[in-house]
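User: Show me a protein chain along with its predicted structure.
Assistant: Here is one chain, sequence first, then structure tokens.
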Amino acid sequence: MKTLLLALCFAMSFGHWAAAQAPSVQDVLQSQRALVEKSSRRTIGPAIDALVASGLPQMQNVLEVWQDKQMWQRRADGMFFTATENSDGTYTLQDFETGAQFEAVASSDLKQLKPNSGVRAMIATALVQFQLSDPDPAKRADALNSISRDPEAALLAPLRASIAGEMDADILARKTRLERLMSMAYDSDVPTRVAAITEMSGDLGVDFRATLNPILSTSLAIVPTDQTPDGNIAQEILVGGDALPSDAAYALLVEAEDAPAQVTQDARDAALEANIEGGRIAGFPIAQLSSEVTRDLAYDALVTQGLVPPRVTPDDIDASLANYRFFDVYAEPSAEVTTAAKAALNASEARVVISQAADLGLDALSLASIYFLAAIGLAITFGVMGVINMAHGEFIMMGAYTGYVVQLFVPNHTASILIAVPLAFVVTFAAGVALERLVVRWLYHRPLETLLATFGVSIALQQLAKNIFGTQARPLTSPAWLDGAWVINDVVSISYIRIAIFVLALLFLALFLFIMKRTRLGLETRAVTQNPRMAASMGINPDRVNMLTFGLGSGIAGIAGVAIGLFAKVTSEMGSDYIVQSFMTVVVGGVGNIWGTLAGAAMIGGFQKGVEFLNPSNTLAAQTYMIIFIIIFIQFRPRGIIALKGRAAGD
């Protein structure tokens, strides 16, 4: 029992002695006083390292105060404090370690430490090690952002140490991923690096590929033919192939001072001019040096006299190249690491190609949805009535401006869109009925006159829009819940607005099919489409059906205008951007067939996105190639993808 008590007393005494011997914050600061007082980016590194290496928990606060230029030094004894300014201009000092406050001192007795931007950046890097385990999740996230921007090998160990105690799932995932990436680049253990690379093989992240690229970076090594370069050889480059033509290889030898430089024509002529003596050059009269051959002879004569360097012949080039071999050598010395990195990068690039194809497919589907919405109304009027309505694009424009006007009075964007969609249908339905009653009905079966008349109406509507709304683009703001994009991975994403337009296109497809298959108007419309005379003899009024059909197609165009206006500019000319594609969609798909319109939109949207992907720098090429494609397509399928059936198919 006595032995236990003695041991306990000794342990307590030793603990107090060890605590007394442990350096305080002020001790550490004073040990680095000279560097802290005259801090510069070149000299401050050891001082910051000493503060961090002390292991004192208060050092995070010291570094933060120092970084914020709030650390003060008392001139009398050189001690460091944080200070609070009082109303009378004096400062109250506070101890870093205990938080104890001292009597107020005059500002003249203090010196404020103001580290420059370079020193503050170094302090910020040091703070990362503390912030990785800070109780505040925002500070931990900021620390990860700082490491991602400027990774260093010294930060790998504290990053690993902080993972075990991380409770936030999102930050834990970021820490784990960053630890794997930094292990690939900075870990000294080769198996650990290989394991990290293999674990993330095929990853689509840009940060993953950016980490692998420096590992796989190479430099050119030129060695004599009987030698091989030191280091991790990536490949030998054969001279004369596409990778290294002979002239480029010889230029590398010249740059490495392993072969004499070739004498160019300019250098030859300059040498000849510099050696003119008495109207002659090496015995050749200047008047005779009018050809390349004679100039070469004169130059060779100067070579014989030792006045100029000799010309390099093709045989000399071949002889020099035969004496050397060219290699690509990895900067990374470990062959295991580069092998794993190359396999991982190949897997990643393969997945990138697949993801790019998926992303292109989503873009094509989105564009097809837009074209379908723009063309569905035209498919009704053009397919049923045979009317070429060049003002169809202006109905799209009217719908977009209707949405803009609604938002002027209804600031809530969700509510305004819900009001604008039916209101745009009503406005453009009425405008379509008015156009049909006043113009189109008098021009049935006269396609050229109809085209010219509706084209004139489109110009008039554009000018009317300019007079009312001006020439500046007007905003049609989408609701907040449509902001952003659905990000599937680092390559594939699609905006929520385009998803909403795709859903809207499906809804209109279902609505149109319901109207055509389940309502009396649809039955009468199909009857008039198949055989107008027979429909009239059965009691159907073709004139009324044409009016309602034209109004329905115009109303759908107005709703399409609201949808398109959410991501495109709303101007008086916006309709003209879609009228050509709408006609092409209807013609390619099959006149008068809703499924054909859907297929035509998919074909045109996919073809346009494909051309844009292959030639992204020239968007006009996509339009040109698309028109050429459609012209060729119509030669083989003049009735479209899905031809109209019935007697009207022969019209």
